[in-house]
Amino acid sequence: MTYPYLHHTEKGELYTENFSIAELRCRCNTCNRRVAHKIKPEALQKHQELRKALGRRYTPSSAFRCHLHPYEIAKDKPGEHNRTAMDIPVKGGLQRAKVVQEALKLGATGIGVARDYVHVDFRPGPLVMWVY
Ligand SMILES: [Zn+2]
Ligand SMILES: [Zn+2]
């Protein structure tokens, strides 16, 4: 499988045209964007496709999270932010609906809807949705 939208650094860390290394890395106090992220290539490819489909600029509210991230540390096993998830900021109902619509078209299998962002991930199915 090839990933036309993915680029990588000399050390193999992935980034895309619209998502920089800094935007993709974990922001917890331990990593503080200094540690390489481990987002799966197939998921990052999809997130870049989603970015193109949405046609607007955004910095993910949250992308990769290491297992020490405060939101992850209490979990028995790493969540989707350790593999495939990105939180996409939204303003208002039209943007929110558009993210859900385009994410579903791209085969997203985890969608969480919040007031100011939509969580999108590509876990092994079936499709699951939730609200915050
Ligand atoms: Zn971290
Ligand atoms: Zn999320």
Task: Kindly describe this structure.
With 132 residues, the protein is an alpha+beta fold. Helices cover 24% and strands 17% of the residues. It has a single domain, classed as Muramoyl-pentapeptide Carboxypeptidase, domain 2. The chain is built from 3 helices and 6 strands; from the N terminus they run E-E-H-H-E-H-E-E-E. Strand 4 and strand 5 form a beta hairpin. It is globular, with a radius of gyration of 14 Å. One zinc ion binds next to loops. The site of one zinc ion has 5 residues, from loops.
Number of strands: 6
Total number of helices: 3
Distance between the termini: 34 Å
What ligands are attached or bound here? Answer: zinc ion
Overall mean pLDDT: 96
Q: Level of helix content?
A: 10-25%
Bulk shape:
globular
- The topology string of helices and strands comes to EEHHEHEEE
Total domains: 1
Strand coverage percent: 15-25%
Query: What CATH first level would be assigned?
Result: Alpha Beta
Low-confidence stretches: none
Q: Give the spatial strand order of the biggest sheet.
A: 3-5-4-6
Examine the secondary-structure arrangement and name the CATH architecture: 2-Layer Sandwich
Largest sheet: 4 strands, mixed
C-alpha Rg, in Å?
14 Å
Structural class by SSE content: alpha+beta
Within the CATH hierarchy, at the fold level, what is the topology?
Muramoyl-pentapeptide Carboxypeptidase, domain 2
